[in-house]
Design a protein that fits this description.
It comes from Iningainema tapete BLCC-T55. InterPro entries: Cyt_b561_bac/Ni-Hgenase (IPR011577), Di-haem_cyt_TM (IPR016174). GO terms for molecular function: electron transfer activity. This is Cytochrome b/b6 domain-containing protein. With 233 residues, the protein is mostly helical. It has eight helices and no strands. The longest helix is centred in the middle third of the chain and has 35 residues. The protein starts with 8 loop residues before the first helix and ends in a 5-residue tail after the last helix.
Length: 233
Amino acid sequence: MTTQPYQPLLLRILHGLNGLFLIAAILTALWTYDTYDGRWGRIPLPSVREIEGIHGTFGLYTLLIFPAFVLYSFHRGHKRLIQPDSFAKLAQVGKPIWWYTLNRFTNTFALVALTFALFSGKMMDEQWLPKGELNHGWYYAHLIAWVIMVMAIALHLLMNAKVGGAPLLLSMLNWQFRDKDSPTFWFAHFSNWWLSFRQGSKSNWFRSMSTLMVLELVILISLAAAWIVPLFN
């Protein structure tokens, strides 16, 4: 019998909420395209004029949850993302480490893809599609982001199934948690992390910046810009 791996409770909550809202946003995005566009094919879905607003609501929920998930992923969960030696390990084709490395790449790719989807969505005007304005650059960018996001989720699931099988996938749905993982300790953990971050030397921080740290910074800046840029349009 295969032992089910343990996943931190906070990871399961953030991953679950983010995934739930994201899947809902993806499905309602397809429905929105089917209702207002359909130039590259349609699905016989009922026409719902309010569907764009519903899609936007799920997109907004995802945008609100995602920054916390990003911070967790790049700090507590950084071992699940690309590592300094990841490209070198790709040379070991077919070996277990090769599959684990591909899994780290797909996890990282999913974070970047979602950032692109959220940013491009926030750059859109909710009146474009109801008015029949289908040729805006940001609308095309958001359509491309939808395709990339679907691919990213598929790869994410396939790679996790490959390296961990059903036990790994099901472990994200297990709500049991260890005593040390109790929510009562979350604030203390966050306070300790924030204190160590503030006490760290900024000069040393910049000297030790890795690709992963740069990527985290780019994603967080992009998410902040997604809120700020529309205010000037």
